[in-house]
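User: I need a structural model of Nudix hydrolase domain-containing protein from Stomoxys calcitrans for a docking pre-check later this week. Nothing fancy, just the predicted structure tokens so I can convert them on my end. Input:
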Amino acid sequence: TVAVVLCNTDLICVNSNVIASLEKKICHWLRENTSPKWIGLQIVKSICRAATRRNLRTLTTVNYNKVYERSENQKLKKSSDFFHKYQNIMDAPPGVFQGSLDRFNGVTIDSSKEYEENEHFPDKLEKSLAYWKEQKRRAIWFTVRTEHSSWVPHLTKVGFEFHHAKQGYVVLYRWLPNDEYENIPVYSHTMLGVGGLVVNENNEVLVVCERFSLIPNSWKLPGGYAEPQENIVDAAIREVREETGVECEFNTVISIRHAHGGIFGCSDIYCVVALSPKSLDLTRCEREIAKLQWMPIDEYLQHPNVHETNRHFLRCYMDYKKRGIRFTCEIGKHQVLKKEYCLYYMKPIDEDNGS
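Assistant: Understood. Predicted structure tokens for Nudix hydrolase domain-containing protein:
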């Protein structure tokens, strides 16, 4: 029997006779691999545990040995795996959902892995709940894909609550312990928006007037919402390029505005980033932008159709330059999770190279 793990374009074949001895090396290699198609450390660990305990008899039943495309579901799984440290529950009795055990002693069941056309779901759910209570599990999570939505009424009937939903799936949960309070994390509740403050060498500010503006005919900074898994600086550069056609490079973070009661009832963080243009040619996004221009700084600071908050952003930028400081961004890596992150902090501007 051979265990096969696909990782990006690499194929690693581990013979059954040596799989246990190679576990440590494989796991170390995967920890260091930050490829977008990284499969997940827990997969290899599970394969190795299965091979060791069951002499590879159950190895062929592990259905995690495939490469997932970089999709919303993959991003969700990868980030959750890092944080919760999921493990396969290999010793679940027959007729019980296998699921994955997280570090908080909770269980997650994904319908894409455990849905069976001819099974009687209510009976299996009842037996699973009894087993999890006996094992003193805490939060039970069901990720139900759209094509398996017939599960949902049965789950809500036995006390499961909706936690969140996204395109293609819904997540429900039930808290089992009666001797401790329900410690369930809330789902994402804040939208992240960005604005690009682009000032050229002629002391002009890049401004746009949106087609569907909240304040008609007002001038504002190009910007929009960050996409999933997108860094603040990258989002600002992309939004400026999409709306105006101007390519830019990062200069400094200017300001952060935090408000509540926004779209979908979420809070809202708006981060303004100063960018340096690589060209002055403008290409209007006809779908979103009614008009755009390079506006002289003096005019911008006095223009009646420029909101005071936007003037404030420019004044902050000019003050930073005067003081010789910038709010910079550097890429770091978590020493345990091996995940990259953006670190923002204030530093003096180097007069020699402007960095």
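Before docking, keep this in mind: Residues 75 and 229 are 8 Å apart (CA to CA).
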